Amino acid sequence: MNKQNNGLNRRNFLKYSTLSALGFIASATVPASLGKQFGVAEGLLPEALAASSSDHTFVYVFCRGGLDALSWLPPSNKNARLRNLYEKVRPNIKYDASSLGDYAFGLNPALGYLKQLYDSKDLSFIYGIGSINETTSHFNQMDYIEGGHSEKRLSTGFFQRLAATASWTSGTDLTAIEATMPRSLTGNHFVFQYRNPASLSMLTGAGVTAVLTKEERLNNNYHANAHVRNVAQAFSTTSKDVHGKVKSIPLNDAPFRDMAELSRLIRAGVYPKVATISVGGWDFHSSLKSRFLGNESPGSGLGGKFEQSLKRLVDDIKAAGRWKKTTIVVMSEFGRRMVENGSLGCDHGRGGIALVLGGNIQGGKVIMKNGFDNRMADLIDEQKTAVVQQSCIPVDYDYRVLLTEIFEKRFGLARNAVVTSVFAETSINGLGSLNLLRA
């Protein structure tokens, strides 16, 4: 693509990044006042910001704070020793376990929608996944994970290096459905940072809705590029989606509004290659059980609201006919310790859990190493509170093995290119594959 035509040369990149930070990039138009300030022509943005030919969408949901694996998948009675030890070291925050077949772990019975996805083979879990770096600092571990390396800090995020390796050029290939740009998207490739419609009200003074309800503006500014029109319409709370249905207002809870915003993009016919979402609040050092599921009513806690938001997103993806072309991964920077503390919570641990969802995955599985449940029982039995590692779930799977498989099978990259260019750590080559995705 000719860079003179699309305006994405190195000099203009900062202009568009600044406009994105202010919430204007996503609208596909630039007001004259801001255009003059940043040297960008009024009207349509460059073509590269508007067009996307993504065939598959990878939704990366990063739960910041440290997911507690045992709250999602507690031990079941399939391993009586582990179950008894679990109840002993978590007397106040233990959960029952809905059977997942012959696995030694079951699903928290309060997470009924996840059970439906699991039974329909649209969901699998990975137990004992994480970073091989042993730090239990939130900020350090997030930096390692989102940088894509286990030892040294890299200047770019792994999604940026993915875009470079895959030679992506479209403006919405990398989409951040979050207010703060995540570390994984740090770099020079343009990132479409989706904003709340309210932040776009400066566009016309009358707001985005006014822009979208004026037929002459739709004809003049949006008609020539359907993708630009769909992006712009996604910001209107009153416009209709591609199926002619009136869009509903997103959830008000800030951590889950981003999932609702992604739903709006999908309903408008905008399908990025990568969409990132961050959901904070999982650092349950205290009151874990009430904060995870809530005391007031079923689903009122963070875990319940997360499941409701996930259901809405999946329903919209299915309604758009995109379920087989979408892979969702939910993960965290690390897990939590197996033993409850004096504040009815759990402190920072090591290995955690990941959820893999989609219409073209090997679903209905709990991926874990052979003998994992017995090793967990041994660790609990021998645990000493002064020895952190003895009360932590071990890291058996490097999270980059999962991402490598996704980048290979969903974006057509050679494994060696992913290992050397995206993660820059050839040791991943010897870690095998999870075989979770269908071709």
Task: Please describe what this structure looks like.
The chain is of the alpha/beta class and 439 residues long. It folds into 2 domains: 1-50 and 196-234, no CATH class; 57-181 and 240-431, Alkaline Phosphatase, subunit A, CATH 3.40.720. It is built from 18 helices and 11 strands. It starts with a helix and ends in a 17-residue tail after the last helix.
Secondary structure layout:
Elements: H1 3-6, H2 10-22, E1 29-30, H3 32-38, E2 43-44, H4 47-50, E3 57-63, H5 69-72, H6 80-89, H7 112-119, E4 123-130, H8 138-147, H9 158-166, E5 174-176, E6 192-193, H10 208-213, H11 215-222, H12 226-233, H13 254-267, E7 274-279, H14 288-293, H15 302-319, E8 326-332, E9 352-358, E10 366-367, H16 372-382, E11 397-398, H17 399-411, H18 415-422
Parallel strand pairs: 3-7, 3-8, 4-10, 4-11, 5-6, 5-7
Antiparallel strand pairs: 1-2, 4-9, 8-9
Helix pairs in contact: 6-16, 9-18, 13-15
Bulk shape: globular
Radius of gyration: 22 Å
Measured between the Cα atoms of the first and last residue, the distance is 29 Å
What is the count of structural domains? 2
How much of the sequence is in beta strands?
A: 5-15%
Mean of the pLDDT scores?
78
| Secondary structure tally: strands | 11
Structural class: alpha/beta
CATH architectural arrangement of the largest domain: 3-Layer(aba) Sandwich
What is the C-level CATH assignment of the largest domain? Answer: Alpha Beta
Question: Which key features would you list for this structure?
Answer:
11 strands, Alkaline Phosphatase, subunit A, two-stranded antiparallel ribbon, 439 residues, alpha/beta, single chain, nine-stranded mixed beta sheet
